[in-house]
Amino acid sequence: MIEIVVIGGSAGALEALVALVPALPDAFTAPLVITLHLGATQRNLVPDILRNVTRRPVAEAEDKLSLAAGNMYVAPPNYHLLVERTGSLALSVDDIVNYSRPSIDVLFESAADAYGPRCAGVLLSGANDDGARGLERIVATGGRAFVQVPASATHPTMPEAAMRRLGDRARVVTIPDLADALAQFGVATYREDHP
């Protein structure tokens, strides 16, 4: 049963998200926690863009904010976003990882440690290998890994890096199939009493 979905991407990933989010079934209530590479001083328009395509509540992540069923959380610029074992979010200004803060690896690894087999990770379009190591951690703790088909990605470097690292341990899907693929592993009812 999936209780959290963590999503990462860089160049081209926002377009994929705009297609994915409205396709998720209403009954899929697992929180979505999203890290996209943003410039340190860049205004975060991602929550506003996603609000235009979904009825799900969308917020920029805040430190110690508790995850809520059906909600979406987006990493702010210049902060790593982590998921804590208590079911809340944390922000960090630790060193840049893979040339990025926020780093996808940081989010994925923290979610894997917090949720183990109840976590699904999704790696979208991007121009470097951030996220591949974190996706491997999700699989190692029993979670599910999904990678955007590189040929459908604006920038295939990120999904290709994950495929090299994980091989057949990651499910490679097109964006139209991703919502169905997530739902196959259980329409989650988020546990507010996590852990």
What does this structure look like?
With 195 residues, the chain is an alpha/beta fold. It has a single domain, classed as Methylesterase CheB, C-terminal domain (Rossmann fold, 3-Layer(aba) Sandwich), CATH 3.40.50.180. 28% of the residues lie in helices and 19% in strands. It contains 6 helices and 9 strands, in the order E-H-E-H-E-E-E-E-H-E-H-E-H-E-H. It has helices spanning 13-20, 46-51, 104-115, 132-140, 157-166, 175-184; strands at 4-9, 32-36, 58-60, 72-74, 80-83, 89-92, 119-123, 144-148, 171-173. The strands form 2 sheets. A 7-stranded parallel sheet has the order 3-4-2-1-7-8-9, with helices on both faces. The protein has a two-stranded antiparallel ribbon with strand order 5-6. Helix 1 links the parallel strand 1 and strand 2 (32-36). Helix 4 (132-140) packs parallel to helix 5 (157-166). Residues 187-191 have low confidence and may be disordered.
User: Which architecture would the CATH scheme give at its second level?
Assistant: 3-Layer(aba) Sandwich
Indicate the overall shape. Answer: globular
The number of E-state strands comes to 9
**Main sheet properties:** 7 strands, parallel
Class per helix and strand makeup: alpha/beta
List unreliable stretches of 5+ residues.
Answer: 187-191
Strand residue content: 15-25%
CATH class: Alpha Beta
Helix fraction?
25-40%
How far is it from the N-terminal to the C-terminal residue, by CA? 14 Å
Strands of the widest sheet, in order across it, are 3-4-2-1-7-8-9
**What string, H for helix and E for strand, traces the elements in order?**
EHEHEEEEHEHEHEH
Number of domains: 1
